[in-house]
Specification:
The structure holds two protein chains of two kinds. By secondary structure, chain A is an alpha+beta fold. Chain A is built from eight helices and four strands; from the N terminus they run ααααββααββαα. Chain B has two domains: about 90 residues; about 70 residues, CRO Repressor (2-Layer Sandwich), CATH 3.30.240. The model of chain B has no long low-confidence stretch (mean pLDDT about 80). The chains are: A alpha+beta, B alpha+beta.
Chain lengths: ~190, ~170
């Protein structure tokens, strides 16, 4: 099929109206699905957000073929995202199914080498995460955690000593065990 | 698949021209177009990238189409933000209000259920800002761009609920 390289006025007008209408429809759909849809708490959320943008861009470019399809796909993506977040907020079972637990990478001065290897994280990246938190010395770090969205959290030592670590209670099982072992060692 | 020399030169020219025109369009419309202040901004930014990519890859069919689509999206984004700072009703239509999810040692269970956010996600947000315990946290807010803001109680004076001027009055 040969398509003209230049657009005529009619096509331009069409595109103008179509872009306007789809902008409003997409805006409305997103608004309807709530702030949570774009909250990037796990790796999957980010992919969904980018897919939504890509579908939106593509559907405008090929509006002749795929306008309705695009809106339908956006609607479906939002719907899936809505239900997966709804279910995982209400039922712990779905939460564990859809989301990995955070993993402890470093705790009280000790790197967990085998875990770093398993998660494919070089030490240099752990150090980078510490620097990004403005920490200059490894001794100041209490714990380093790989989060479910693929970011690395660094917790200060002084902060973690004074308090009980209640944000660490949903670590994965092995991490919990490592933390417990390390805590036990300190009392010996 | 091979491309001829002429095609290669064409492609170089087209990508250069599209790049320049896109930089100009974005510059003309201002920084706000690409700032991600609400849920929709990010989607539009990605859509712009996708349009640019399609324009360059299918330049034979869709060069003008692409440039025009790009201009349209930027313009719509411009108009939407223009309207939303002038008319409150448009602003609240486009942008949802921030929601308080945790305040004064209590989880706002109802708000959390409504926004479909669970406790482990709040904990994650706290860890990401370098805190380890809820003790030090005075409030957690779900912002309208879908990020979680963690406010600590230690380094600021105690926050009062009425300090959160923006929080929905419900």
């Amino acid at each position: 099929m040969e398509r003209a390289e230049r657009m005529d006025i009619k096509q331009m007008g069409e595109l103008l109206i179509i872009a306007f209408i789809s902008y409003i429809i997409v805006l409305f759909l997103l608004r309807l699905s709530g702030k949570r849809t774009l909250l990037k708490m796990n790796a999957f959320d980010f992919i969904i957000t980018v897919s939504l943008g890509a579908v939106f861009g593509n559907m405008l470019m090929n509006y002749e073929d795929s306008l309705m399809k695009g809106i339908y796909v956006i609607f479906l993506l939002l719907l899936f995202q809505f239900f997966s977040s709804l279910l995982s907020a209400r039922y712990a079972f779905f939460d564990t199914l859809l989301k990995a637990n955070p993993t402890l990478l470093f705790y009280e001065g000790k790197y967990y080498e085998s875990i770093l290897k398993k998660e494919r994280i070089p030490k240099s990246e752990v150090l980078q995460a510490m620097r990004e938190q403005g920490i200059g010395r490894v001794e100041e770090v209490g714990a380093v955690i790989l989060e479910t969205d693929g970011t690395i959290s660094v917790l200060h030592k002084e902060k973690s000593k004074k308090n009980d670590l209640d944000t660490l209670e949903d670590l994965d099982k092995e991490s919990k065990k490592r933390k417990k072992d390390s805590d036990d060692d300190q009392f010996d | 698949m091979t491309i001829s020399l002429i095609d290669a030169i064409k492609l170089i020219t087209i990508s250069t021209v599209s790049f320049i025109s896109i930089v100009l369009v974005l510059r003309a419309s201002g920084k706000r177009t690409l700032s991600k202040m609400n849920a929709f901004d990010f989607i539009v930014t990605v859509a712009l990238g996708s349009v640019l990519a399609t324009t360059i890859v299918n330049y034979k069919d869709s060069f003008w189409n692409g440039i025009l689509t790009f201009i349209m999206l930027v313009t719509l984004q411009h108009v939407a933000t223009w309207l939303s700072i002038r008319f409150k009703s448009v602003g609240s239509m486009i942008k949802s209000e921030p929601t308080l999810l945790y305040y004064a040692d209590t989880f706002q269970e109802k708000a959390m259920r409504r926004e479909r956010v669970d406790r482990s996600e709040l904990k994650q947000a706290i860890r990401k800002s370098g805190y380890v315990s809820f003790d030090k946290i005075s409030a957690i807010i779900l912002e309208s761009d879908g990020t979680l803001t963690v406010m600590s109680s230690s380094d600021k004076r105690e926050l009062d609920k009425k300090d959160f001027i923006f929080i929905n009055k419900k």
